[in-house]
Amino acid sequence: MKVFWLEREKLIEALKEEAERLGRENPNVKKIVLFGSLAEGRAIPGSDADLLIVLTESDSPFLERLAEWSAKMKIDFPVEVFPYTQEELHLPLVRTALESGIVLFERP
């Protein structure tokens, strides 16, 4: 689906609802953060949403996690997921997302 007019606030609200659903259904989810162009207000029509999904743990390699979490998304908008564990929070992409992103879900 291509988006020709981006209503940022409505889209962020829909992503927040999706993040809350993922958090409720998956106790392994610690935090979900929107980052990148949409979070920074630089998105253009055709942009996707970048979501950092912080997991408490996972035995799966990153590429398996990527496929698994991509398949769990139930939103009618292009989303790229980045499922990392708490042990991987030191990675530059993860640090940047945590520092500059919008928290959509966080488990207390």
Describe this structure in words.
This protein has 108 residues and is of the alpha+beta class. Helices cover 39% and strands 24% of the residues. The protein contains four helices and four strands, in the order H-E-H-E-H-E-H-E. It has a four-stranded mixed sheet, sandwiched between helices. It is globular and about 35 Å long. The chain starts with 7 loop residues before the first helix and ends with a strand. One of its GO terms (molecular function) is nucleotidyltransferase activity. This is Nucleotidyltransferase domain-containing protein. InterPro entries: NT_sf (IPR043519), Polymerase_NTP_transf_dom (IPR002934).
SSE map:
Elements: H1 8-25, E1 29-35, H2 37-40, E2 49-55, H3 62-72, E3 79-85, H4 92-100, E4 102-106
Domain Polymerase nucleotidyl transferase: 19-103
Organism: Ammonifex thiophilus
GO molecular function, one term: nucleotidyltransferase activity
CATH superfamily: Beta Polymerase, domain 2
Strands, total number: 4
Widest beta sheet: strand line-up: 3-2-1-4
CATH topology: Beta Polymerase, domain 2
Radius of gyration: 13 Å
**Level of helix content?**
25-40%
Domain count: the total is 1
User: What is the name of the CATH architecture?
Assistant: 2-Layer Sandwich
Supply the CATH class.
Alpha Beta
Distance between the termini: 34 Å
For the biggest sheet, the summary is: 4 strands, mixed
Indicate the structural class: alpha+beta
Given the structure, what is the number of helices?
Answer: 4
Strand content: 15-25%
Mean pLDDT comes to 93
Low-confidence region ranges: 1-5
Order of helices and strands: HEHEHEHE
Overall spatial form: globular
InterPro entries: NT_sf, Polymerase_NTP_transf_dom
Protein name: Nucleotidyltransferase domain-containing protein
GO molecular function, one term: nucleotidyltransferase activity
Pfam families: NTP_transf_2
